[in-house]
Structures are given as C-alpha cells and as structure tokens.
Amino acid sequence: MAPHATPHSKSSSGIRPVKGVFSTDAQQFLGKHRLGRVAQRLFVYAEEQEDGRVAVWRLSRNFIPTGQKRFLQKERLFAEYVPEPGIYINKVMPVMRRLDDALAVADRHRANRELFAAEFEYQNVLRLDEDHVKATFGLGLTYLERQEKQNADIVFRKIMRIEAAFTEEHKHLFNDFGIQMRKLGMFDEAMRYYARAYRLCRTDEHLLYNIARTQYEKGRLKSARMMLARALRLNPDFPEGKTFMAYLESRLRGEDVPELPPQ
C-alpha cells in the first residue's frame, strides 16, 4: 500500500527527516541458468521512521510504493542510493495524492450508503495500486454491506495474503471487516481472519472480544469465555467485555437470560 503523500516537516531537532525517491544499480539474474546479468536502475521510496531507520519500498510501474518494506540505516541509504527528487515531485507525489483523493471519495460514498459508487471508486484506487490496504478493506466492506458473500469472500482471500493489512495502523479496519463477516454468518471465514490477526497482534482486547463473539455465534460458549477472559486480563475495565462475560456466565449456569443483542 502506498504511504500518504505528505509534505516534508522538520523534526523537533530541526533536521528534516528523510523522505523521497532514491535509486541504485541492481543486478538481476535472467532465468534459472544465469545466462547473464543485466544492469538495472532500481527506484525506491524511502521514509525515515521515528527510531532513525529508513523504511524503503520498491516503486511500481505506476510510481507507487509497493510490496514489503525493508529497513535500512540512514548511512547505508546515502552510501548506496542516489536521491531522485524529480521523480518524487513529478511522479510519486501526484499519483499518491490521486490515490488519497479517490480513497476519500470512496469512503464518503460508503458512509452515505452509496454502495455502487463506493465500489467504483475503490476499484479506481486498486487499478493503480492493487494491494492498497484501505481500498481493499473498503471494497470488502462495501460487498459485505450489500450482502454479496461471494465477492466479499474474494476480497477476504486477498486480504489474507496482504501482510500490511494486519498491522497496528489498520487494526480498526480488520476489526470492522471481521464484525461484518460475522453479521453475515461467515463464521469460519471470520475465525480464520481473526486467527491471522491474532498471530500478529495479541494485545488488542477488541480483537479478542470479536473472536469471543464469533465463537459464541458458532455455539462454543466455553471457547468464547476463554477468549473473553484474555481480553479482560488485558483491560479489566473493558465495558463491553464485562457485559459479555456476565452474559456468558449466566448462560453457562443454565439461567434463562435474554438473547445477546447483535453487534
């Protein structure tokens, strides 16, 4: 997924963080038998992180940062890569702004329940950046809200292979997506999805709560209580968790209690 196109800003020390396009000479073997080597100019987008390392993405043919990011020390970046400010200003920044603008339009359409218009705009983003995380989630949520399980399942399978989808930055998106799958009765898909998210983020009580809700919907009350207990160990004051735990305890004691409201 492409990072946001934002202007440079100075850090508290007054030194401008590294952000822009760089290039380097790369060697690429052709075929399996090493028939020869071809010199290739490799362009990357680089952005300095708070810890001082520089995150680096390859640029796609559309000049969009794509794929898995690598981390370099700043000294190595300056030693092995050449700044390309013209490509950053004239190619990368404009296309990243186009992505951000199109995504904002799509999100507004979805918020207004203009779901076919939202689908069109999300697809526009994905034509430029096929692994754009927010657009992929938005498209999936659009299909779920239209109750199109088959299309939603296609997007679900795509999300499962995008590593960047399961990060702290997108935590609220994968929680929303899982909730909508559960509401449509896609319990097995939701559990596979939450299991993948849980392997990458084990300290989110909301994620554990949603796993518990899915287990409950599948009729596994004891498993639901176990996951909910983990959520409450992380946050004992979690109000939804406490309410759900009280309900589960009543059900497990065999008490006649009203059905849990949908969520």
Pick out its properties.
5 strands, 5-stranded antiparallel beta sheet, alpha+beta, 263 residues, single chain
Q: Which stretches are low in confidence, meaning pLDDT under 50 for 5 or more residues running?
A: 5-12, 28-35
How many beta-strand elements? 5
Query: Please, how many helices?
Result: 10
Q: Approximately how much beta-strand content do the residues carry?
A: 5-15%
Strand numbers in spatial order across the main sheet = 4-3-2-1-5
Helix and strand succession?
Answer: EEEEHEHHHHHHHHH
Return the structural class.
Answer: alpha+beta
The biggest beta sheet is recorded as:
5 strands, antiparallel
Q: What would you note in describing this structure?
A:
- The protein has about 260 residues and is α+β, with helices and mostly antiparallel strands.
- It is about 55% helix and about 15% strand.
- The protein contains ten helices and five strands; from the N terminus they run E-E-E-E-H-E-H-H-H-H-H-H-H-H-H.
- Strand 1 (about 20-30) and strand 2 (about 35-50) form a beta hairpin.
- Helix 2 (about 85-110) runs antiparallel to helix 3 and helix 8 (about 205-215) packs antiparallel against helix 9 (about 220-235).
- It is elongated and about 70 Å long.
- The two termini are about 30 Å apart.
